[in-house]
Design brief:
The chain is mainly beta. It has two domains: 20-173, Sandwich (Immunoglobulin-like); 184-304, Cupredoxins -  blue copper proteins (Immunoglobulin-like). It has helices spanning 5-9, 86-97, 227-239, and strands at 42-47, 50-52, 56-68, 74-80, 109-117, 122-129, 132-137, 165-173, 184-188, 191-193, 200-208, 214-220, 253-261, 266-273, 278-282, 300-304. Strands 1, 2, 3, 4, 5, 6, 7 and 8 form an eight-stranded mixed beta sheet that branches. Strands 10-9-11-14 form a four-stranded mixed beta sheet, with no helix packed on it. Strands 13-12-15-16 form a four-stranded antiparallel beta sheet, covered by helices on one side. A hairpin with a 2-residue loop joins strand 1 and strand 2. The radius of gyration is 17 Å and the shape is globular. 48% of the residues are buried.
């Protein structure tokens, strides 16, 4: 899963799949992948446990290419950090990514990135980056390279705590606009506005129109589960975070992941939408001041593909 999946894990092990990649690198604490802008503006390489990227990169609407040269799954998540040293950023990431409901430090703002990418694969994401100081990090753990649902309890340390956190600077920003692709998912406080839904492989734009940071974790329910059953299953899952599901409750699987992004920002992501299938999108971030996840405030949308 992608590692804001740590937040999902705080509510239910089943939803850990909501941030889990499928080996093609189109999921993430980022805004999934898209090659719609062609040549990348800058390239990143990752391995155990480090990044290689330019010390200074262009900003505005940019396309980032991430090549995973390691043996494990990795991601290239991005956060604006101001003048805060990377050691402090690493320390402050844990409460956020573990979903403790504590306040998000004022200096820390997520800007998506490139999602979970399989060993030997390359993923691309188009997103918006302002001028400033950033840290690129991987919040996956070694267990995320095992094709099994994580178990409740202590988890292996995230890769950023083993050195996979690298500061970089955005020196200039263009004034390009993010392309809408096949439609725009608009996040507000606290709801999603979805574009017309059509079956097929779609490149969508996730745009945060709210006053809080938001993300979109898209889950797919098994064939034959309608919207009413999906909503009931989600309510059951969220009512018993981390515990076993009652027999017969359908388990959702990962479909796509977008964000998180601050107010006014966004990025592209790709999703395979199957005709007749039911999906749900949730935001599991808390407010910057802390508190319950946004899904607990009603930031969830269930939809089916005609």
């Amino acid at each position: 899963m992608t590692r804001l999946g740590h937040i999902v894990l705080a509510f239910v092990v089943v939803l850990s799949g909501a941030c889990r990649g499928d080996g093609e690198g189109d999921r993430a604490l980022s805004g999934s992948t898209s090659e719609s802008r062609g040549t990348p503006d800058f390239e990143v390489e990752g391995r155990e446990y480090s990044f290689e990227l330019p010390a200074e990169v262009p900003g505005g609407v940019v396309t980032i290419s991430f090549e995973n040269r390691g043996r494990l799954r990795h991601e290239a998540a991005i956060a604006a950090v101001g003048a805060t040293p990377v050691e402090q950023v690493i320390q402050d990431l844990a409460p956020v990514l573990e979903g403790r409901g504590t306040p998000i430090p004022d200096y820390l703002t997520f800007y998506g990135g490139v999602g979970e990418t399989a060993p030997g694969a390359t993923s691309v994401s188009t997103l918006s980056l302002p001028e400033g100081s950033f840290v690129m990090f991987c919040s996956l753990g070694d267990i995320d390279s095992v094709d099994a649902l994580p178990r409740p309890g202590p988890q292996p340390p995230p890769h950023y705590s083993s050195g996979m956190a690298r500061p970089f600077t955005v020196r200039r920003a263009n004034i390009d606009m993010l392309a809408a692709g096949d439609g725009t998912v608009r996040a507000t406080d606290y709801a999603f506005e979805l574009p017309p839904i059509r079956a097929g492989r779609r490149t969508l734009l996730f745009r945060n129109a709210g006053a809080q940071m938001h993300l979109g974790a898209f889950l797919s329910f098994p064939e034959g589960v309608d919207e009413a059953a999906a909503r009931q299953a989600l309510d059951t899952i969220l009512a018993a975070p981390g515990g076993p599901l009652p027999e017969g409750v359908p388990e959702p699987s990962d479909a796509a992941y977008a964000g998180p992004f601050p107010p006014g920002a966004g990025g592209t992501f790709e999703i395979d939408l199957e005709r007749g299938r039911t999906y749900v999108v949730v935001c599991v971030l808390p407010d910057r001041a802390g508190g319950p996840p946004h899904v607990a405030k009603g930031m969830v949308s269930v939809f089916s593909v005609p």
